[in-house]
Every structure is written in C-alpha cells, then in structure tokens.
C-alpha cells in the first residue's frame, strides 16, 4: 500500500470510529440536521375564500407555526410547503389534490370539508401518497390505507356530551334538540349523542327540530324553528352549528328569550364566533365538548399556545392545533423513513410513531387511523374585556 493510500485509509477508519462513538452515545435529543438533507414538498389543502376560509386560515396557521418553531424542517429536511385552495365543493377539492400530486409532493395535509374528504379518497389511495387530514373526519370513512386524521371523529363530540348529560341532568330537565338540516356530520353527532344519552330517555322533550343548513343564514333564518322548539319549555338546548351560522343561531336563540343551558360540540364557540356575538353576554355559560382547550396546562400546549398568541394575537383553536399536530406526526414519520423518504415509506412510518406529545394531551393513532384522545368540557366565561372558552373538566377518552 502506498504512503498516500495508507494515510487515506487511516483517515477513513478514524472517521468511522468517530461516527460510531457518537452514534453509541445515545440521548433523547433530536438528531442533528445536516445541510445536505434534500428538501421535501408538502401539499396543504385548505379553503382560501368563502364560508370555509376561517377554518382554512387556522389549518394553515397551525402547520406554519410548527415549521416556524422547527427551522422550517420536517424530519431533518427543509420543507417546501405548497398550498392549494380547497374551494367550497368536491370538484375544487379534487382539483387541488390533483394539482399538488402533479408537483411531486411527499405528503398531503389539511382538508376542511367532510364532503371533500370523501371526494378525494380514491385519488389519494390510488396515488399512494399519505394524507394527514387535520379537520374533516367522518366516521364512515373506513378501510383507508393512506388517509390519516389528527382531528376527531364527528360522532365523538355527541358521545362525550351524551355520556356527560345523562348523569348531569336532573329528572325534571328537558332537552330540545335543534340541528341544521343537510349539514355533513350532523347525523353523526346526533347518533353519538342519542346512543350515549339513551334513545328513549324521557328528558328528550320532543323530536329534533331541523333548521336551515345555510352556512350564511339571515338574521331571521331560525326564528320560527326556535319558537317551535321552545314551545315545550325546555331547560336545555342541544345544538350543532359553526361559524356564521353559530353566531346567528346563538343570537336568535337568546332573542327568543331562552336563558337556559346550551350544550354543543365545540365548534359552536370556536374561531371568531365569540368575537362576533353581540352582546357578548349572550354567549356566557355555553358549554361545549371538544378535544382541545387553549388553556390546557401541559408543556406542549404552553409552548404552542404562547407562540400562536404571539404570532396571531389570538388564542389557537382546535383547527390550528390539529394542523400543528399533523406537522408533528409528519416530522416524526419522515425522520423514521430515512434519508431519501418516499411517500410509501412515510406512510409505513406513520404507523410506527406511537404516542404523540400534543397540546391537547398525549394521544395516538388507533386502527382506523384517527386519534385515541381525551375530550374536554369547556364553558364560555368572561376573561377581562373578552369572553373565551375555559376548561371545566375532562369528559372521556374516545377513539
């Protein structure tokens, strides 16, 4: 062996020995990010206009915040985040997914609408590119391989409240159920509530009163239906609305003179709803069930909520939190998939990540690829000059 070759061999052996020593000194710290890691493309699908824009903004904000807090990298790879407008119908959602797939994304995330989630299912499965949905999660979406969800299954909100109210209400209480007709997810919530509370429980005062399902209702859209529901003199109203519809429903319910207790899945008071209700006192006392509350006292939430408030000057919602978690699970899965991850390798790795340390509390994927997680009871209370959702207690672990 020549002197030059011998010197080169010794250098290589020294390098191998050093790297082996470093690898042997294990720690809980994340692996060092190398500058040579190849960038990865992630496609984010969210509504950018119309009635779904508020949720779309939250989905985008949550994912972007995770990237901001992690050097704009996932699994040690710089991220090229490509956003696509989900629109307000299945065709626009399908076009968004197809456009992102043509750009060679490693994974997809987002999706606000359950209708869009159903509409893109076959496209995603055939493309064999993992989708980590961060909002739309209908229970009837079954037997998927490449679709994972970090939010909640819609019937679980009804189950959590049904189980709680069954024991909480007195024998003298009566529940009026008021729901929007034709809104995706409403039947799931109602079924979950009735199965837990009891189909034939006499405290359910009357049949369901169905209202308009318009996402932008008029200021009198619910008046006649509310009056019909209140004719039985209920002490409790169970309902299901979100966004602009939630604002109008709450104000019209209070204008009709109802001062009893209101219970609903958490989206009734999520996002900008509490800011838009006038007077703000109309929202006080409303209790909702959700998988997240911005005032949860754990390390992950303190970091997340503090950073979110600093960046956006408002408290985070469950939509932002689920999208933040979607980025977190992708971070872990891409790291597990290795130096040159493929969509299929990332999808396999998603099944191996185990428990997630989340702002909502620890959770993990179950067999249907949705979260097994805690549900919380929240109450709208006054916090200085504003009203906000305040954690009351844990309701159940579902999933």
UniProtKB/TrEMBL annotation:
Keyword vocabulary terms for this entry: Signal
Alphabetized PANTHER family for the sequence: LEUCINE-SPECIFIC-BINDING PROTEIN, PERIPLASMIC BINDING PROTEIN OF ABC TRANSPORTER FOR NATURAL AMINO ACIDS
A matching Pfam family: Peripla_BP_6
InterPro entries, sorted: BCAA_transport, Leu-bd, Peripla_BP_I, TAT_signal
The keyword Acyltransferase belongs to this UniProt entry's keyword annotation: no
Domain Leucine-binding protein intervals: 39-385
Family affiliation: Belongs to the leucine-binding protein family.
Organism ancestry: Bacteria, Bacillati, Actinomycetota, Actinomycetes, Micromonosporales
Protein known as: ABC transporter substrate-binding protein
Signal peptide: 1-23
């Amino acid at each position: 062996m020549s002197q030059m070759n011998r010197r080169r061999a010794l250098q290589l052996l020294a390098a191998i020995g050093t790297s082996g020593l470093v690898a042997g000194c294990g720690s809980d710290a994340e692996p060092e990010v190398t500058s040579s890691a190849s960038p990865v493309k992630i496609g984010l699908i969210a509504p950018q206009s119309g009635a779904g824009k508020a949720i779309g903004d939250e989905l985008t904000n949550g994912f972007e915040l995770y990237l901001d807090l992690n050097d704009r990298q996932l699994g040690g790879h710089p991220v090229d985040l490509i956003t696509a407008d989900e629109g307000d119908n299945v065709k626009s959602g399908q076009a968004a997914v197809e456009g992102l797939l043509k750009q060679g994304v490693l994974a997809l995330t987002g999706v606000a609408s359950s209708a869009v989630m159903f509409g893109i299912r076959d496209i995603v499965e055939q493309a064999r590119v993992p989708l980590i949905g961060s909002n739309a999660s209908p229970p009837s979406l079954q037997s998927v391989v490449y679709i994972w969800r970090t939010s909640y299954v819609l019937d679980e909100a009804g189950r959590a409240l049904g189980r709680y109210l069954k024991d909480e209400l007195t024998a003298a209480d009566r529940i009026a159920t008021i729901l929007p007709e034709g809104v995706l997810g409403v039947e799931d919530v109602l079924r979950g509530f009735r199965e837990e509370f009891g189909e034939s429980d006499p405290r359910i005062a009357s049949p369901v009163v169905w209202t308009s399902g318009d996402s932008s209702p008029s200021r009198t859209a619910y008046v006649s239906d509310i009056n019909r529901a209140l004719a039985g003199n209920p002490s409790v109203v169970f309902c299901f609305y979100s966004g602009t519809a939630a604002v109008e429903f709450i104000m019209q319910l209070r204008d009709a003179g109802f001062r009893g207790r209101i219970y609903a899945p958490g989206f009734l008071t999520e996002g900008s709803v509490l800011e838009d209700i006038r007077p703000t006192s109309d929202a006080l006392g409303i209790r909702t069930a959700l998988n997240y509350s911005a005032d949860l006292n754990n390390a992950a939430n303190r970091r997340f909520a503090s950073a979110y408030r600093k960046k956006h000057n408002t408290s985070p919602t469950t939509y932002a939190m689920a999208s933040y978690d979607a980025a977190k699970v992708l971070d872990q899965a891409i790291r597990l998939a290795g130096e040159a991850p493929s969509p299929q390798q990332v999808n396999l790795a998603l099944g191996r990540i185990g428990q997630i340390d989340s702002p909502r509390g620890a959770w993990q994927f179950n067999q249907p690829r949705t979260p097994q997680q805690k549900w919380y009871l929240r109450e709208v209370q006054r916090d200085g000059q504003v009203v906000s959702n305040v954690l009351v207690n844990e309701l159940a672990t579902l999933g």
